[in-house]
Design goal:
binds ligand LLP, alpha/beta, TIM Barrel, 438 residues
Length: 438
């Protein structure tokens, strides 16, 4: 038995179908995993995770040797994942003291961490500096002054990048578009604020401006926006080199690389993103020393490796309108369909090859009408107790999960060669009330 054709590039790479018609990932049968760990359950396929890391490192460094791949922790991070990224030679992009402390707890070398964010607090910057963070990616004039003061008080010089806004629309969801002028992130180039930021940073004695950064949005299903952004960024570099004797040692076009969620919308290959980014930089370089290239994939590293597994419960048919089939998870573990209208596919994990028979809407169990995971999907006729797997769930589901309705966030199991390893246990009712004061 084999994986249904449309799902081949969506499910984790190790996916198979067992002789019993069960979905198998990383050599582990999902029916058995559900029995052992309960549902909702999140699974990560270690093989897919490592291959994505190696693909990014390989495709970029083979074209541009001086590349550092930084995993964007916001897609999801926990100590076990951080350790894996360390083993694969990645650096980290962190966006809060919390992400920094997870990395630290995992023993990650923080000199390979870059701290982003449009409003880092004084406490976060103090913490980052005292733990020897590699770089701070400064996002505002307020932060330039704040960081100068903190660096001076700690007697340190901090290496910084400036986050710039190149004014390029990457044609993704409005809520995840970041590199346009009307964005809370970065110094816009077009308004002259980016130039002023370079000039200001160069004068501050405890800040060492080593590079420039931009991030356009996420997910980006085209490669052209990266070329356009680099053109704007590199023209700006040329200008500030001449005007302010700025020297570009590091350059980042950010992350945002797409993955496949549904069969009809394939993303570009990693090699295509790598080609457009590195060729634009190489064409511009001329006699200059090649700056270090930083790229920040988040979704494209963990997205495909992750699968959410749910159990079917109640069904409700509204005659002539639609049939709702409810699962035991929903917007608490995956809010993306609700806030971005994100689309997913589903597989019946306990009978993968059963014929598709009816169109249903897969609803969550949360007390909100909008809690629908997948609308109008054609699936085998579902019965209570069936297991529904939703692939491409590794990015921004768990990291945006909540305890809405006082639900318990799901456990995560890492799968490899037939072995399952819990990397996060299911929350308990005690966890729910841990911070409450009686
Ligand atoms: N670098 C910076 C500065 C970023 O802001 C982001 C994502 C990334 C890298 C990583 O982007 P990725 O490679 O993962 O696409 N919650 C949304 C996504 C928000 C992304 C925020 N920034 C979602 O669920 O689609």
């Amino acid at each position: 038995m084999s994986i249904p054709g449309g799902l081949v590039n969506i499910l984790p790479e190790t996916s198979q179908v067992s002789p019993e018609d069960h979905l198998v990932i990383g050599g582990c049968d999902l029916v058995q995993l559900a029995r052992e760990y309960g549902t909702p359950l999140y699974l990560f396929d270690e093989g897919t995770l490592r291959r994505r890391c190696r693909e990014f490192v390989g495709e970029f460094t083979s074209r541009y040797a001086n590349t550092q791949v930084l995993y964007a922790s916001k897609a999801y991070s926990n100590p076990a994942l951080v350790k894996l990224f360390q083993e694969e030679g990645l650096g980290l992009d962190v966006v809060s003291a919390g992400e920094l402390m997870i990395a630290r707890a995992a023993g990650f070398p923080l000199e390979r961490a870059y701290f982003h964010g449009n409003n880092k607090t004084p406490q976060e910057l103090e913490l980052a500096l005292s733990h020897g963070i590699g770089r701070i990616v400064v996002d505002s004039f307020y932060e330039l002054d704040l960081l100068e003061g903190i660096a001076a008080s700690q007697g340190k010089t901090v290496q910084i990048l400036l986050r710039l806004s190149p004014g390029i629309d990457p044609h993704t969801h409005a809520k995840t578009t970041t590199g346009i002028i009307d964005s809370k992130f970065g110094f816009p180039i077009a308004t002259g604020q980016a130039e002023e930021a370079v000039w200001t940073a160069q004068k501050l004695p405890h800040l060492d401006l080593v590079g420039l950064h931009c991030h356009l949005g996420s997910p980006i299903f085209e490669v052209e926006p990266y070329a356009q952004a680099l053109e704007v960024l590199l023209e700006f570099v040329y200008y500030v080199e001449t005007m302010y004797a700025f020297q570009l040692k590091e350059l980042s076009p950010g992350g945002g690389f797409a993955i496949q969620y549904v069969p009809e919308i394939p993303p570009p290959r990693v090699s295509e993103y790598a080609e457009v980014i590195t060729s634009n930089i190489k064409n511009w370089l001329g006699a200059r020393e090649a700056p270090r290239l930083l790229i920040e994939p988040g979704r494209s590293i963990v997205g495909r490796a992750g699968v959410a597994l749910y159990t079917v419960g109640a069904s409700k048919e509204v005659p002539g309108i639609r049939k709702f089939v409810s699962l035991d998870g929903g917007m608490g573990d995956n809010i993306r369909p609700v806030i971005y209208g994100s689309r997913y596919v589903a597989v019946v994990a306990n009978r993968v090859s059963a014929p598709e028979e009816e169109k249903v809407t897969l609803a969550g169990k949360y007390c909100e009408s909008g809690d629908l995971l997948i609308e109008n999907i054609t699936l085998p006729r579902l019965r209570a107790g069936d297991l529904v797997a939703i692939p491409a769930s590794g990015a921004y589901c768990l990291s945006m999960a909540s305890n809405y309705n006082a639900s318990l966030r799901p456990p995560i199991v890492m799968l490899k060669e037939g072995k399952a390893r819990v990397i996060r246990r299911r929350e308990t009712f005690e966890d729910l009330m841990r911070c409450d004061v009686w």
